[in-house]
Amino acid sequence: MLMQPALGLLNHVLSEEDWARDRLAGFAGQTARLELARAAWVVRISDTGLLDLVEAGSAATVCVRLPEDAPVRALTDRASLFTSATIAGSADLAETLGFVFRNIRWDVEHDLSRLLGDIVARRVLQVARSIAGWPMGSARGLALAAAEFFTQEEATVACRPDVEDFCAAVDVLRDDTSRLEKRLARAELLR
């Protein structure tokens, strides 16, 4: 259901990137199966380097199984998404798909500028980025405030300098105890 719009967006991005289509066109006619949780999709590479959806039961040249947390990784750490995928089948096709999807970028501003004009597109993206950054900034501020409250006001959690001082005191005590044990051992030998 969601695969068709996602595939349409992916083909739109591919249509803007000649290098990516050229790489994929070398594997025209071959299929790739993408598995995520219980869902599976199979795509065939066309002669032009675009992707066509085929039946999920179709045989695949390569099978790529994504980890359960793939949607989160796709938004936060794309590199770890590709390194955690399990691949079976054609290594050449898998490497090409991995290279294309690691390096392809959607130029949203360019697409928006076609609809709204250059200036409006830039402003819309600036506003969208600031809105998208707001929750992260708020979460960071909340975390810092909570950390300060629990280390300074309530003192339920030790702050870093206190922990470092404690560790240094333990090291001194350990060294002193070791020296005392050696002195006692020498005193025992002299008796």
Shape: elongated
Gross CATH architecture of the largest domain: 2-Layer Sandwich
Average pLDDT, all residues: 82
Please list the strands of the largest sheet in the order they lie side by side.
3-2-1-4-5
* The named CATH superfamily of the largest domain: SCP2 sterol-binding domain
Give a quick account of the main beta sheet: strands, pairing sense, barrel closure: 5 strands, mixed
Q: How large is the radius of gyration?
A: 29 Å
The total of beta strands comes to: 5
Helical coverage, percent range? 55-70%
Element string (H = helix, E = strand): HHEEEEHHEHHHH
CATH topology of the largest domain: the name is Nonspecific Lipid-transfer Protein, Chain A
| Euclidean distance between termini CA atoms | 88 Å
In total, the number of domains comes to 3
Number of helices: 8
Protein name: Ubiquinone biosynthesis accessory factor UbiJ
Organism: Accumulibacter regalis
Main location: cytoplasm
Pathway: Cofactor biosynthesis; ubiquinone biosynthesis
